[in-house]
Structure formats: structure tokens, C-alpha cells
């Protein structure tokens, strides 16, 4: 089995992400055999390491050199590394912009084909789980489904055609529905599974079922992407209280998937 390369993003620099990354990286027994490339903010990561009482000194690599050989931990050279300090425990425009600079391409990457593929994958998984005729719901991308195109047309131009394309392939689905109502529908028995457009949409139900240990695994992609189920936890950021179990689980799953690819 090959040694996988894993990109580990610390997430919102004002939340608990940097602390979790610092704790996990300083615990050798918690790390899989992999080359881990940390995408982080210098001030935030170093402060988190101090708060957690762990040493952390990572060599820097360029994006071209990130996929090196052998296991180890490095950090990526990127503009966000030297960004100014962020106020901990606060949601504001600065850390929002930081996050967008790191994960922003999601809307541009959507296509009707990808929506249809996701529906097909979920439909097949539910059938393998013993559900003869799965009922699949599909989330919209924008709040309130873009309100008929008033602030986003992805539902009209991309997602709805994707639902129709999936139906033409024998994978029935309903939607898109706004993310703030679709999980209520599922809870009331309308759906067996839900296709969401990005990470946080799918975390709503996950957090209710396994907040401290839950992991999201994104399928159908050329690389393995796993994330812990919890959020930024602004209320405990900087206090050294964050539980790294979900991140440890996410790293282990990503390593197993990457090694088997």
C-alpha cells in the first residue's frame, strides 16, 4: 500500500480548528502513516499550539512539492499563512474571507452531471443497505433556494437539471429543497437519504447523531475528503478544551482511503 498525501486544513482561524490540529499533530499515536500537508494560519496555529501546551515546528513546502515521498508533516506555503491575527471566538468578515480564499470554488464546480452522479451514488448505497425503492431528497445551494433566482441561480440552472438527468437514468429524487427545511422533511419520513451541495449542509443531521466522534466522508471524488462533524465552537476557542476525537477519526479514514486508491 502506498503512503497517501493528506491536506489538513485548520478551518476557521477564529474557531477551535487550529487547536484541534495542534493537538492531533503533537500526538504521534493519533496520526496515520501518511504525508500530512497542513494548510493553516501562522499566528492562529502557533497560538493554538501554545494554548494546548504542545510543540509544533513544521517545515514549509510549495504546492508543487507538497506531494513528496514518505510519511511526515509539513505545512503549505500560501498567502493565508501570513494573514493578520483574527479575533478568537468571533464570526466576522475577516475570517469569513480567509475561509472563502481556502474552499471558495464550490459553486463554480457544481454541474448537472455531478448532481446526477451524487443522486445515483446515494440511490445505489441505499439499495445496498436494503431499501428497495429509496426516496432521495436534494438540497439547494443558496439560502431559500435562491428565491427564484433573486440571489443565486444554481437551483434553476444546475441542480434542477441534475435531478431530471438522474431521473432519466433511473435514479428518482425530489428537489431541490432549501437546506433549512429538507432535514425536517427527512425526520418526518419523507426521505431515506439526502444529497447536499457542500460540507456544512450535511453536518446538520450528523451533529445530532455523533457530535464528538462523527466524520463526514465525501464520495465520488478523485481524492479522499473527510471532515469532523463538529463546527468552529467559538465559545471554547483558545481554552484548550476542544476534543480531537472526530479529527483523529477523520485522519484515519482519509489515510485508509488514500492508501487504497
Describe the overall structure.
This protein has 261 residues and is of the alpha/beta class. The chain has two domains: 5-105 and 220-260, no CATH class; 111-196, no CATH class. It has nine helices and nine strands. It has a four-stranded parallel beta sheet with strand order 1-2-4-3.
Strand order of the largest sheet: 1-2-4-3
When the domains are counted, the total is 2
Shape: globular
Extended strand count: 9
> What is the typical, i.e. mean, pLDDT?
84
Order of helices and strands: EHEHEEHHHEHEHEHEEH
Strand content: 5-15%
- Helix and strand content put the structural class at alpha/beta
Distance between the termini: 9 Å
Largest sheet: 4 strands, parallel
Poorly predicted runs: none
Residue share in helix: 25-40%
How is this structure best summarized?
With 261 residues, the protein is α/β, with parallel strands linked by helices.
Secondary structure: elements and pairs:
Blueprint: E1 5-9, H1 17-25, E2 35-39, H2 42-52, E3 60-61, E4 72-76, H3 93-103, H4 106-109, H5 112-128, E5 136-139, H6 154-168, E6 174-177, H7 179-187, E7 193-195, H8 199-210, E8 215-218, E9 225-228, H9 245-260
Helix pairs in contact: 1-2, 5-6
